[in-house]
Amino acid sequence: MARLTKPKPKKNERVGKTAQYIADLKFMGEEPVVYGIVELDDITLTKIFNWYNYMCTRSDARQYLKDFFKIQGEDTNLEMLATVPDIWISVTAAWYARILNRGGILEMPHIKKFRLRLTEMFAKSTLNKALENLDIEETTIKVRKPTKISDFIGEFEEAIDNSGWTLSIYEWLQNKQIPSTQAKIVEEFYTPIAEEANQTLIDSKIKEGYSHYSAAELKKRAAFYATIITDCQRHASNKKKIVRKKKVISPDKKLKNFKFQTESKDFKVVSINPEKILGSNELVTFNTKYKTLTQFIAISESGLDVKGTTILNYDEDKSKTYKLGRNAEINIEMVFRSGRKAFLKNLEKLKTATLQHRINENTVLLKA
Question: Please, are residues 206 and 150 in contact by the beta-carbon 8 Å criterion?
């Protein structure tokens, strides 16, 4: 068993209790007693940690670590703690610190885990700060805007604190549906940590900093972080292979701003439902102001489409606008009364004009 500088046991120090805290306190009970207990085994520690996880915040966790560093006289760690954002505070280390602050005695394996969590907290916080603020592309340094990927890494780090080196980051990336570009950021974050973990196996100087771990534990740690790197790469590669389905836009939404003339009493014609245009192979329109007839021919089997008041996906060579002139009423009749061959033959007799690919309030939709 091991114990650091023994502080005087104190009562629960939480002040300014809210109504919610009081309600939780009735449910969970008072803060667990640790002073005077000869052995804090794994089962007992799990129950104690559950209490802190439920009742305490990250602000509490920061305060527990601050108190610990003050009691132990660890001024350097106290200064470094001030630079660690709340999301990177290791709650596992904080709960250990709280137990020690209140006179608890931890066995050596838990002291080792406590110290490792502190080491990793400071290292990862420093690295993440650099990754969030700098994005080096070629020779240009750009400020990177904060993203949700920081929250993802924070959650995963907290899970490591609780579960150890047994997690699968591939499953996490899949479940959270992290894009391939953000998986690359996760890989960048863990790469130096993985390299350092591997160095502990071969570099005696680095290994000295982890002397409280056995050779088997160091191998397990190195393997865990190496797997994180390969899993990030595999997830990013698999994400790129997934072909996204084209978003289907409803006809109502496509035709929301589509303007046309519903009826012309002068020429005795009415427009068809504009929804018939979508996917059709042909569209015939009549401009009542300029007395022109336009025939749109689809360029592919997907048919015609609409964006705003513009017709899309038409063949520019085959689609044409024709001048009807004085015989407008007679020429319009051929659209409805002539067969296909006769209709096309009659169009050849007409003079062409600049193609009118936009529809407006003077355009009647004759046929689709």
Answer: no
Q: How confident is the model at residue 363 (pLDDT cuts 50, 70, 90)?
A: very high
3-state secondary structure 44-100: HHHHHHHHHHHHCCHHHHHHHHHHHHHHHCCHHHHHHHCCCCHHHCCHHHHHHHHHH
Q: Long-range CB contacts (< 8 A, 24+ apart) of 240-243?
A: 240/180
Of 42, 8, 14, the residue nearest 28 (C-alpha): 14
With 0-12 / 13-18 / 19 or more C-beta atoms within 10 angstroms meaning exposed / middle / buried, residue 259 is middle
Residue 227: how many CB atoms within 10 A of its CB? 17
- The C-alpha angle with vertex 116 and arms to 115 and 118, in degrees rounded to 5, equals 65
104: helix, strand or coil: coil
Beta-ladder partners of 2: 106
The domain ranges of the chain are 1-112, 147-244, 251-367
What's the average model confidence in pLDDT over 278-289? 91
Q: pLDDT tens, 294-317?
A: 999 999 888 999 999 899 999 998
Rg (CA), the chain: 36
Strand (E) or helix (H) holding 206: helix 204-208
Angle at 155 between CA 90 and CA 93, to 5 degrees: 10
Give the distance from CA 148 to its chain's centroid. Answer: 6
